[in-house]
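Hi U.,

Before I forget, here's the chain from the pilot set. I'm dumping it here mostly so it's searchable later in email.
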Amino acid sequence: MAGLYVHIPFCSSRCVYCGFYSTTGLELRERYVDAVCKEISFRSENLEVGGERPQIGTVYLGGGTPSQLSTEQLKRILDSAYIYNKVENDAEVTIEMNPDDVNKETADALRKLPVNRISMGAQTFNDERLRFLHRRHNASQVKEAVETLRQAGFKNISIDLMYGFPNQTLEEWKTDIEKALELDVEHISTYCLMYEEGTALYKLLEQGKVAEIDEELERDMYYTLIETLESAGYEHYEISNFARKGYRSKHNSSYWRGVPYIGIGAAAHSFDIKTRSWNIADIRKYIEAMERGERLYEEELIDEETRYNDAITVALRTKEGLDLTTLPEDQRRYCIANAKRHIDAQLLKMADNHLALTKEGLFVSDMVMSDLMIV
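Structure:
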């Protein structure tokens, strides 16, 4: 089993917080789609896991803003994915969309493609904060987009929510959660606003024009989120993700379980158990290389220590936690020894050979994970 990820880096404008590779060079879209289809053809033919060509269980079109492509361009990419891969009949096929890109014509056209899951960046229902983020949509368009997608027949919709804005209060965050619940979507992903170096938001922080919220307020916001969504029937199955029963993100869950995946497009990452590779983060160089029939990428071999550290940082994100029986004996002893003080502090719990974060441990997960890693 494996996943297929296609990076669509186009954005009409850049959000202040985004650290993902993207471009506003929309004139390159047609050449980029050609290049992506070409990469899918020759990468997929050589994709092997354990000496066999794997079934593709999930396909994910992420970005950037995939909905900046036309439905015909999206169809070409998905056609290539299905022609050159053994995609399962019931594969989860996700596309990320901006709310303002959703209209009846587009939604109906997507329903004719294999797409069966929509991931939409709502971020907040406060128009002032949406403008601060440089988002193109307004709050009312999120509700309209969900209604349009429902009318087109989509039964699996996810939205992204963000909290921790400068000067945001707990009550304002509660209002955003309530508005999200009114949409009655199947999945909600949530993130605290991050100040990543190199982003416009980080520059504002350096210039003293914005300030991060304090840790106590961030903790209150996170716990309020968990309690409210769980009370509304959502399963908190990963640090940042909540789902109705049966609607976990299969694609993202495969990352957390260490399932191999092939990444297509500029800056896309791939993983085949033994190696990790990443394409060049330059759209023009990527396109030109593909037109020559060449892939520009870097690669690293994954040794036993790296494999262990990867397991710590992905498996512990999940509700089920880390299955200790999957570790070699020496790594299992090391992990348990280093976990003891966090178990005593009730930040970790162990049951049935699984090590998992407690509710208190979720908020300080980075610290707990770093203590378990081999350095």
